[in-house]
Records
---
Amino acid sequence: MRRRLGLLVSAVVTVTIPGVLAVLAILGHEHGIAGTTAISAAAVADESAVGPLPLAPASTVPAVRNAVATVERTSGGPVTVYSDEAASHQARAMHMLVLAAAAGQATSYQGVEETRQLGVNGTVTVSSQVWHQGGGLTLIRTLSGATPVVSYDAGDRSPTGVFGVTSAQVALLGKHYIAAYRGAGTSSGRPATIVEVYRFDGSLAARFWLDARTMVPLRREDFDAADKLVSDELFTQVRFGPVTERPTAATAESPALAPSSGSAWVTASSPATQVALLAKRGVRLPGTALAGLPLYAAGWSGTGAGQVTDLEYSDGLSVISLFVQQGTLAASMAGWQPLSLGGYRVYVSGHSVTWTGRGEVYTVIADAPPQTVAEAVSALPGGGQPGLVDRLGRGFDRLAHLVDPFA
Amino acid sequence: MSHLGTQISALIDGELAGAELDRASAHLAGCPACRTEAAQLRQLKRELSALGELDSADAVTRRLLAMTHQNGPVTARPLARQPGRRARRRRGRYVMWSAMSIVVVGVGAAAFGMGGSSSGGNEPQITPQLEVFDMQHAITSGDVPFADPSNTPAKPAARASERTPVKASPRASAEATRP
């Protein structure tokens, strides 16, 4: 009888521990898990779009068209959904964007950029004076606002493109959108070549004006899925050629702007590894994509006192930078506007959103439609200061990670 | 004096009546020996009656068992064993529930312990260093820094500056440089 009781207890323990762990971990993260599932599904859908892009009438359901293309590709046959004419447009337009990315780096120019972006808290406008020496130094000075913006990277790194047209972003764009050449136009008083970018459902996602002579982007418009303009960036003034009015006093004026050795941000060789490291700490994030944007880069910066993890999500047009650091938001958030977003109380400044979730501070900086930003925020942990349930949830996360490091 | 003899048995069994009963009762009142014998006979009769009742109970049990045998191969177990078995079953149930409760409480306590802040409950207070983050975003997105100057905090909170090694200059009219 005693042996029978012992067996019974062993069976209960064997079944109960993993069961309770699984159930409570799921209950503790119903929100995050739901988001993760949704995002994973989106990632799978995106996966079928990698490679030669199919093109079909706007009325075609993307999933159906992608499925057809996948089947044809798997069978070894040509992807006939993609017409010859469309293929020609796509190849030509993508080639133009590749040239634009290279030109943005190699060409010298100076001018004034204006950016109007629809954020989660209204439209934000920023004007910046830009000087760029081809293949060399770039200076950016923000003009709008009472106090000029202070932005400085200790590693002397800087954007490598104009209006987000970089080789990395163009490569991503080619996997998630269909580009098409749309003829000639003008922008900033200069002749331009127009390239439009479409979603798989046929809706317009973005429009680029590329300088006809240099191929440097002159203007960029972004549209959401409802054809609403969500971002407009353009040169209000631009001049190509050697930089003649470059300010030289800035570096001398500010010690903080003096070049430093090496970058404070370390680029992770594998973005997934950074996500796994956060999971080990009990920070559960959507795995490979956020709000439908694939994770494509990651990095971290920190000292012995703490660490900031940077995860970059982009589909080539929309970009979301997610910064995660341990702690809680300060009691006083001067300069930030409180807002309810994605079910959480967040603070917004420009196109940045920050909030506390389960003992971590999340900061999202987005060049993306407001709906995408809201979706991203709601897919991440939130809820302010960690309570008992949060603490238990984080504990179960850590326990689950001990049991299965790949969870 | 002549004793009651065989009449004493008839008297105890209630078989005497009339003059015989009067004569026997009068003798019994005056004869201690016959009274003793009558008392012993009554005691014996009571004991025999008790034995008779037990036999009839066994007979009923035997008949019931015979009926169950006729309806199928049912193993008859002494009824006296049932209470002990029930008690053991109840004890097993208590053990099972206790084990489960201990497991749940133990796992919950472990999760509570592990769910605490790795900084020992002293959560750092942070104001995000927007200038630094925005510059990093600009570098990876290929766009200009976007931090709204009218909204950007002039200086990060002390705790935040301890945590982030990249320093943002509070100087006005500063410019971002890049190679």
Note: The first strand of chain A starts at residue 109 and ends at 119.
---
Amino acid sequence: MAALNDWQNRLEETALGPVRRTGRRFWAVVAILLAIIGWGLYAYSVQLRDGLVVTGMRDRISWGLYIATFVFFIGISHAGTLISAILRVSNARWRTPVTRMAEFVTVVALICGASFVVIDLGRPDRVLNVFIYGRWQSPIIWDVLAITTYLTASVTYLFVPMIPDLALFRDRLAGRSSRWRGSLYRTLAIGWHGRPAQWRSLTSAIGVLMILIIPIAVSVHTVVSWIFAMTMRVPWDSALFGAFFVAGAIFSGIAILIIVMAILRRTYHLEEYVTEKHFVYLGYLMAAFAAIMIYANISELLVHGYKLQEGVEFHFRQLFLAEFAPLFWFYLLGGLCAPIVIALVPATRNVRGIVAAAILVTLAMWIERYFIVVTGLRVPLMPYEPASYAPTWVEWSLLAAGLAAFALLITLFTKLFPIIAVWEVAEDHEASAVQAGTGIPARAIPATADSPRLAEEAGR
Amino acid sequence: MRPQIDAANSRLMNDETNEAAVSDRVSDDPVAPPQPTTNGSGFGRRRFLRVLGLGALSIVPLPVVSELIREGGVADSQSEPVHGRGAPARTRDGRVRRWTMIIDLRACDGCQSIGQPPRCTAACIEGHFAPEPMEWMQVFEADLAGGGTQFIPTPCQQCQNPPCVNVCPVGATFSTPEGTVLIDQERCIGCRICMAACPYDRRFFNWGKAPVPPEALLADYSPEHQVPAKKGTVMKCDFCPDMARTGTLPYCIQGCPQQAIYYGDLEEDVATNGREVVSASRLLSENGAYRLKEDLGTEPRVYYIPGHGEAAGRDAFDPGRSPTEWPWMERAEGAVTWRR
Amino acid sequence: MKSITRRSVTTVTRLLAPWAILVAFAGSAIASHVDVSVATVGEVTVGETVAIPVALHTMDGSPLAGTVVTFYLHMSFAGVEGEAEIGRAVTDEDGVASLAYRPRLAGHHELRMEYLAAGRSDIESTTTVIEVTGGAQLYHSPAGVDVPGVGVELLMVVLATVWSILFWVVLRIVAIARAGGEVREAALGARR
């Protein structure tokens, strides 16, 4: 019992730590990120004033870095689905320390991704036309519907399992933090007291959401891929695009999650809960998805390359041999093959190795989105010389700002909300303790300050 | 009807151990099953279905109703004017015209014989103040089977299964009953998915403030006469529907010195190049007419009769044409140009 | 003298008359020794196919086979007027060339048929009129495929299902909040 309380207390202290103490390093990081975002806002103001001519896009290659980054962010948002939902459905206990971070990443990535579509518009002042005049037959409208649904479901899926932890914050931080923080937690904890009726509602809600969010997430990146696949551009006109993009999304989601996990683990001292085992398991998952991506690429490239219909030969030259060869081979070797090797070789199968693999994968997946967009548009449609595209400072600035906004929002989240799903980790710990036969009761309700009776009952 | 929850949480559903200790209603028996409360614990199947139904009703009504009213889809069913354009052009006996263009490549020599940039392109640019570097009617030079080249004047193909109309999220580009595909630059949000979708490279974007002469700014904009161009929107050849409706031939037909381009009506089965009147169906069928990229299923309204300018005296192995020019000396204030 | 002049003129006239008549007949035979007849076509509606038969015979009634007859229609479009060829037919062994003609515009139309008979050097022509009454729209765009039920309705159903489930989840959250509120009331009530 004492051991349990000790462990429980340590867990709660770790969860509360970031919220209680804010060091100078935090403010420095926030300042840098805000500066980058500020520069990005300036670049956007230049674009608003002069039009999209300040970018490198032109009539022949009319989409570029913005759309590639949009697809990349939406892809990353599948981190939450995989960890929170798929692993929850398959009852993989090791997921518990990372579910909260995964869901943070999902929500933030969706917000950043959606903003890049608006940045790419020629007339952002008319964005409401999408809602007033929207045509159901358009892939962009499907995209709007899917992302809105996924964002709503993800915010809900982030919030609902966080309620008991918010109640913990409310109780433990009562009177010891600022007024607005106290009322924030009180409001968001919506009167959680660990009542059985509340537990029932909570678990049924989580149960439904975790199943529902999987098809929603699959549909999201499928419709994003259909923005390309519903056109007749040679490299995009493929029935495989939906599955290909979903696999790529989960793949890049795992990689980003590993990176975020590594950073937060180091910063907030989560080593006891987010262990090397978590990195290795996620590394295995990443390697598995790398294998799926290799298979998808082979399917796509071999089927088209064998026949070399009109336009395919040009595409293959630009991709394998000429302009885009460095990017493509880096993606294939560094992004798809390397993670498999790193996960299989015992010497690299540790936190450092897996994080290195994750960085390679993230870089490679952004590059893949980039060359999918640009090579798709570059194949000539009529007898003219193929155009070329190079992003300008405006586009690079906005990419940097988008990444900085992503990092900033996650940083701010960690200062406001519990980064570890305390009750789930505790539950998992109890369950494994029970299995180990220490005799601790199978039910542990997190202690809440204003229900001493409940705590007493729990101890029984 | 309780949703499935993983085994780790199942003990939370086990009422016997929890409910007895902490039930909402006071109960002396520690292992008695709980009494149904009104606190959401007895949320049965019926209530679930009721909520499902209510949810569906409350969420879906307006879009579905407006969609059913709107009759989205085939231009044929549209009888009322769309988006601020005039009534459909009709034959003398009141049937709606179906515009077509037939380009006789036997007569097109890329204006090599007159030593100028292609006159069809020039006439279109001047007539519409088409911003540089847009060529709504663009003369491509394609290789021939045995070497040598042919010139292919390429306007918007005015497809009947238009990829651009299919993908537009706001309906800014739309098909008309006459079969032309127009763009409403007041509604376009500049997402450019239509440009990705067009397989003929016939859509152009106003990347910056359009490089047009100052006098272009005086015109009244309409989707049928896209002057002046609007920044951040898409534009393209529109088959000059405002002119065609009044019986005037489009600029490109008027501009061609070889009268190589015919403008016609498939409803009345008639076409003219400005000099002679022909039966459109005869001209097409008797001369081996074809359409560009037929296998894509876009069903274009622009037909080509194969040739390489021989009727204008051109030799197939004589390549090159003069580059297109945009003739205005002065651009509107703040206008910039760009490369395609 | 007068009687001689009168008798001379009469004689010359009598002598010349048969030649004149002979020349007149011969002349008309030289101008058109082909006898052409076009059956009058009744009233026709736009889009309805009608046969326009042209019969060519020599003067002695034998049919002229193997002659190409070209049909022209006077058209006016976009300010340009002219004759457009609308078809050609070859006379069969009965000397009849028949064009299957599908009028595309209502009104009074003039059709001109041209032919060059064998052994002749001039192209000859004849005309006929045709009355066409207005009809329904003929040309319909090749539209897509309409599968009933697969379309916007399906999308609506899927969306409604998903959002209803999300709505249900929101109700669960509300239930949590309400359960918390009742606890506080019960606790307050117990203290009193």
Note: The radius of gyration of chain B is 31 Å.
